[in-house]
Amino acid sequence: xxxxxxxxxxxxxxxxxxxxxxxxxxxxxxxxxxxxxxxxxxxxxxxxxxxxxxxxxxxxxxxxxxxxxxxxxxxxxxxxxxxxxxxxxxxxx
Length: 93
What we know:
Layout: E1 5-10, H1 16-27, E2 31-36, E3 47-50, H2 70-80, E4 84-87
Parallel strand pairs: 1-2, 1-3, 3-4
């Protein structure tokens, strides 16, 4: 079994991304990288964390705009192929 490589997606307005990254990297000692919402690929990451924290603002239906971010196409592809994706809070809709 291959070692987990976590990717934590960063959207404008999200705040749980730093909490998730710090917990995974510094407390659990996992290989963790940030994935910018404008990236087009998750790269070699095999566990994706989509944080909450009201991406693009609380007043715009959390996550409604984030779903159009470049990175989401690859995340959806990955999830549909059986990949592991963890969505946290309202921002992960």
